[in-house]
Amino acid sequence: MISDIRSLRKPWQRLLPFQSWGQLAGYLAAAGIGTLVVTGILWAAGARVAPVVVLACFAGAVPVLYASLPATFEIAVPATDREWKARVVDMAARIGYPRMAEAGQVTTCTTAWPRWLAWRENRITIGVQPASIVVRGPAFAIGLLHGRLRKVAGDRGRA
């Protein structure tokens, strides 16, 4: 009933995990601020700051970008089965995606983080198709959602 997770990343994203210019700008800003904070602490402690520290601050933030790459899974249920869509939306709220917007057959869930921290790419969409519900979003959130839904579904959840 619940399919396996399928990655939607493009081949070039193995090396450059950015999905948009906005995400790149946000990454550079956050890593830059982190670098300034770490550098300030080290200078205040009397340590010399090596270029390795700057590189480590920027490299340390890269896993977040890979975790944000898109993934998807499907739940094979008829479009008339509203219980499963409600279950997915509820689980999305439980893993930190409480804000919702409805547009036709698609529900978009976003994080409760401040807007400047919530990339557009970190949204979860739940779309109702004639024979399934398609769930798409960042790989880390899709993994959590998928695991919890399979646990709730028990053996019935296996595709």
What is the residue-mean pLDDT, rounded to a whole number? 81
What level of helicity do the residues show? 40-55%
Distance between the termini: 5 Å
What is the oligomeric state here? single chain
CATH architecture name of the largest domain: 2-Layer Sandwich
Give the tally of structural domains. Answer: 2
Strand content: 15-25%
* Biggest beta sheet summary: 6 strands, antiparallel
CATH class identity of the largest domain: Alpha Beta
Structural class determined from secondary elements: alpha+beta
The total count of strands amounts to 6
How much is the radius of gyration in Å? 19 Å
Placed side by side, the strands forming the largest sheet appear as: 1-2-6-5-4-3
Number of helices: 5
Unreliable runs = none
CATH topology of the largest domain: Double Stranded RNA Binding Domain
Question: What spatial form do the alpha-carbon principal axes imply?
Answer: elongated
Helix and strand sequence: EHHHEHEEEEH
Give a structural overview:
By secondary structure, the chain is α+β, with helices and mostly antiparallel strands. It folds into two domains: 20-65; 70-157, Double Stranded RNA Binding Domain. It has five helices and six strands. Strands 1-2-6-5-4-3 form a six-stranded antiparallel β-sheet. Helix 1 crosses helix 2 (51-60) and helix 4 (82-94) packs across helix 5.
Comma- or semicolon-separated keywords:
about 20% strand
